[in-house]
Every structure is written in C-alpha cells, then in structure tokens.
Amino acid sequence: MPKKLTKYSDAELVAMMENSGKQKQEAFTEIYNRYSSKVHAYCVCVVKGREQAEDIFQEVFIRFYRKIDPKHIGTNVPAYLMVVARNLCMNYFRDKKQTVDIEDFEFSELQKSYENKELFEIILSTLDFLSDILKEAFILREIDGLSYEEIAQICNTTLSNAKSRVSRAREKLIELLQPYIKDIENNTK
Amino acid sequence: MEKYEEFDAYIDGGLSAESESAFFIKLASDDEMRLKLKQMMDIRNVIASNTSIFTPPAESTSKIFSALGIHQPAAVSTGFNYKKAAKYALTLFLGMLLTSAVYYFLVPAKEVTRIINRNTVTDENNHDSKSNGLINYPVVSSKDISDLSFKSASLKNQKVPENVLIEPIDKSETNNAVNINQQNENESDIVGINNSKPEFVSELLSGWRQREIIRFAPIVNDFEAINPSGGKFRLELFGSQYFLLPQPEISPARYSLFNNNGLAALWEIDDELSAGLEIRQETFYQEFWGMNRFGIIEKYYQQPNFTTISLIGKYYFADFSNFKPYLQANLGANRGGYVYRGTAGLEFSPYDYIGFLLAFEYSKLLFYHADNWFDSEKVGIKYGVKVKF
Questions:
Q1: Within its chain, how far is the Cα of B82 from the centroid?
Q2: What are B302-313's pLDDT values in tens digits?
Q3: Cβ pair B45, B37 in contact under 8 A
C-alpha cells in the first residue's frame, strides 16, 4: 500500500513532480502545504504592499510547478522556493522604487498603547530601516525559521556572513524599536 | 566567544549545557545584555503571535491552483481516504447497475415471450425433435376488436410471415365465424363477417387463411408482461438549493461541474419502503480550530467541494392517488467526514413510471481535525424526477 504523501521526503516529492498528471499534482500540493506559509511570510515581510506580496507569492509556486528542474532544486526545497521568492522580490524592487513615508514612523506618540497587531506592523515597518541584506537575513531567520546554512545558500554567501547579518539585524532592530519596547513588553505579558 | 556571539547562540539554541550555564552566570551580572535578551524575546513573541502572514489567503491559493489547472486541496483531513473509497464504491455501484440491466433486459425468463401472451402454442403437426415434440411460437391475440372490419380487404400480393399461428380455440365456444368466400380463395378476398357480435375469432383452417385474418387483427400488447423487474427499481435525478449554517465567510474556490446535483438508485422493498444508494456533489461550509507550530490556536474557514455517497432509506407514509408524501434518511460519507441527512418531501406521479419530487432537506457533516470533532449544517430544497423500471 503506497504511503501517504506526508511521509515522503522533499526529494521524493520533487522526483514525483518529474512525472506528469496526477502524481505531479499531488506532489506539488504536498509541497505547497509544507512551505506556502514560509514563502508567504517572506513575501509579506519583504514587500511593503500586500497586493504585490500576494502576486509574488503566487508567482513563486506557479513558476515552481511549471519550470521545475530537480537538478537545481536538489534536496532543499524551501531554500529553492525562497531563492525564487527573493529573486522575484528583487525584480519588483528594481522595477519600482520603494519609498517609505516618514509619517509612518512618528515616534512621538509614545503615550499610545499599541495592540499586538499594530506592534507587529511597526516591527515590519522598522525592518525597512535596515539594509536589504540585514532585513532579508532577519526575515529568513526570525520569521521563516530557516537555518544559517539555508540562509547562506539563499543569500549566496558564507555561513559566517549569514550569522553576522542576523546578529547585526537583531541589534539594529532592538535599537530602532526602543520607543516601543515598553508596549511590546506589556503586550507579551 | 564574543559577548554577542554568545547572545545570538543562546537565542538560536546553539549553546551546550555547560556554555549555557556560563552564559547565565554572565547574564546575572550584565544588565545591558539581560535587557537586550529580554527585548529580543519580546520581539520574537510579537512576531510569533501574528500568524496571519504565515497563512496564505484562500484567494491566493485558489489563484495558484486555478492557474495550474489543479484541484485545490482541503485543509482538513480525517486520515481516511474518502476520495479513494468513494471511487471504489462508485465503481462497484455502476458495475452492479450494469449487471442488473444486462440481466433484466437482455436475458429473458424462460416462460416470458417478447409478445403479449405467456402461453405457448403447440402445433401437433410440426415437431421439433429437440424440444420434445413441441414448438413454441410467439402468439398474437387481440382483446379489443371493436374497430375490426373484415367487410372488405384485399390481400393481393401480400407476404405473410410463416412463423405466426393463431391460438387455437375450441370451436364450440365461438359465437361468430369468419365467412370466407370460397370462390375467391385464391385471391384472398374476405367478403363478409357475421356482424352479430364484433368479436375476433379464429379457426384453424387452412394455413394461409388464418394468417390473413391475423394480419388484419388489431394487436394490443400488454407491456406488463415484459417488465421483468416488476416495477421495483427506480432512478432519481435531482438538484438542490441550500442555505448553509452558519452563513459562509468564504465561497468555494471553484464549483464542480455537477454541484448540488445527485443521482439515486432505489429498490422497492414493498409499497411503503424503499432502499438504495445515492451519489451527490455538494459543498459544506466549515469553521474549525487548530494549533499552529507556535502553539497558537487558529481558526480556519473553508467551503470545499465534496462528492458524497450515501445509503438511503425511504418511507412513504401515505398515498393520495398521484401524490405520495415520504420521509427519507441518508447515511453517508465524503472525503471530509460523515454525512447525515433527513428529508421530508412529496412525490407526484402522473404516470406510473415517471414522477416528480419536491422535498425539504436537513444535512449535517461531521469532521475531525487535530483531536477535535466539528460539524457543519445546511438546510435546503430538493427537486427532481424519478423513473421507475
């Protein structure tokens, strides 16, 4: 009796996707179920506009299905998906200049108590003040939960560089979020 | 190790037990690092509690699968492959249906002929050695000859079938006899008939004269004799309109080709009770809860398409001429879970072999997710046609 798709490894599912028809569809569906959340989180965090983020997210999986090449994917499917997402995001930023409205970052309203969701939006917005490489490293580590090896592979850098970028991103983010730290602290109690 | 290397290693869970102990000792005396650690953990908690970014919207998922031409997956799985089971059950049902059709319509019972009369004619003059001296011919007889006229008839150059014989009757029972003009025998003219009683009678005279008479006799076929199942098998084709409970938050990603349509096959156990099998295409709106990887409970909304196969029990509790009210219970399953359905309706049969139905339905889907049972309900109107075989 064939085992359930959830028990297949990523490499086995990629191999199944080399076939056509129902097997390919089922393998793709399983991969989508496993990694769509991470890819979606990455796209939403990197791209400011929600609609654009959704478009890029959809394009990632459509390209993955239509142009799959097991030799390029190897055994690390999430890393491959992130690379595709990253490239699409970079293309998006290259085509459209991203500007951040300074009004979005009025730090004077310190008396206001923020809800959890608002704090999250503030964190995401604050990430824009980081350089692209630090922002990307932080998102891949803290939001997508990828390992340093995977981050190094996606960002095409060394392992030590990947660790360094995440460390610097954390430090910078804590510094930038100081005005909101009290609200963050209260919100997590 | 650098101070902040230890800090990052601890956050990433990369310190050994010994290193961790040493780190805690340093933390106790380093206010700055302790504050930074606390702030970083708080930021992590805010990120973890905002899981909306991790969940792709249903619309995005739908667009991806529609662009690729793939059937969209359901979020809930009961662990049992209902799709495969439904496929096997459908194959079995269709096989049974086909076998029944072949048996009933192509393989006649020995004693049933294809024409009205079940009786067989024995012709003592023609023997068939294989059938023990008896030959069975199909018999044609007329019940109503009120419009029969033998006053004038012309049979010139008419070819008469050779294998048709008149059912022989006792001459003493005949009230009338066909008066055949003996002089016109060769031209096959029938010139008169005894009009005292318009009744078709026959006599086993010379072969060709009897065939002539039969040729002009009106034939009434009684179709009851060729109904092998005795009118016990019926098919119902129906559609439905539903009101989902609770009101759906989202619509299905797509509607299947036969959405809210179904087919049922029933066997009449007696005049009041029938049982059978039904296959139906439908949607159920589902709301359910589950825990994500951060330990946060999320609520899911979906409205998938289901192919539901059910066993049916139908009970007619009254009979008002052409109108028959009924109650029906369905017990079935689909890839989402188990389905229970109760129906109260009315059948209108202007003819014995065809009818129309209108009913009120209540349906309930029971499904299982993450160690919990959930349910989904809907009420609706069902309408359709039934054909009796």
A1: 18
A2: 788 889 999 999
A3: no
Whether B356 contacts B385, CB under 8 Å: yes
Candidate from B47, B56, B64 with C-beta closest to A120: B47
CA distance between the termini of chain A: 49
Q: What is the pLDDT of residues B45-78, one digit of tens each?
A: 888 777 677 778 888 888 898 888 887 765 544 4
What is the C-alpha separation between B285 and B301, in angstroms, rounded? 8
CA distance B305 to B283: 5
Instruction: Quote the pLDDT of residue A165.
Output: 93
**Which tens digit of pLDDT belongs to each residue from A95-108?**
765 554 444 443 43
Nearest-Cα residue of chain B relative to residue A185 = B42
Cβ-based contacts under 8 A for chains A and B = 90
Distances (CA, A) of A37 to A120, B121, B312: 17, 81, 42
Q: How many whole angstroms separate alpha carbon B47 and alpha carbon B43?
A: 6
What pTM was computed for the model? 0.45
Q: Do A25 and B71 touch (CB under 8 A)?
A: yes
Reported as a single tens digit per residue, the pLDDT across B221-257 is: 444 444 445 668 889 999 888 887 777 766 666 677 7
Looking at beta carbons, which pairs linking B158-161 to residues 24 or more positions away fall under 8 Å?
B158/B188, B158/B212, B158/B215, B160/B208, B160/B211, B160/B212, B160/B215, B161/B211
- Distance in angstroms (rounded) separating the CA atoms of residues B168 and A173: 110
| pLDDT at residue B295, rounded to an integer | 58
Interface of A with B in 160-179 (CB under 8 A): 163, 166-167, 170-171, 173-174, 177
Integer Cα distance of B360 and B322 in angstroms: 19
| DSSP collapsed to 3 states, B169-231 | CCHHHCCCCEECCHHHCCCCCCCEECCCCCCCCCCCCCHHHHHHHHHHCCCCCCHHHHCCCCC
Confidence band, pLDDT 50/70/90 cuts, at residue B259: confident
Q: Is A149 on the interface with B (CB under 8 A)?
A: no
DSSP string, chain A: -PPPGGGS-HHHHHHHTTS-THHHHHHHHHHHHHHHHHHHHHHHHHSSSHHHHHHHHHHHHHHHHHT--HHHHTT-HHHHHHHHHHHHHHHHHHHS-----GGGG-TT--SPPPPHHHHHHHHHHHHTTS-HHHHHHHIIIIIS---HHHHHHHHTS-HHHHHHHHHHHHHHHHHHTGGGHHHHHHHT-
B5, B42, B53 ranked by CB distance to A185: nearest: B42
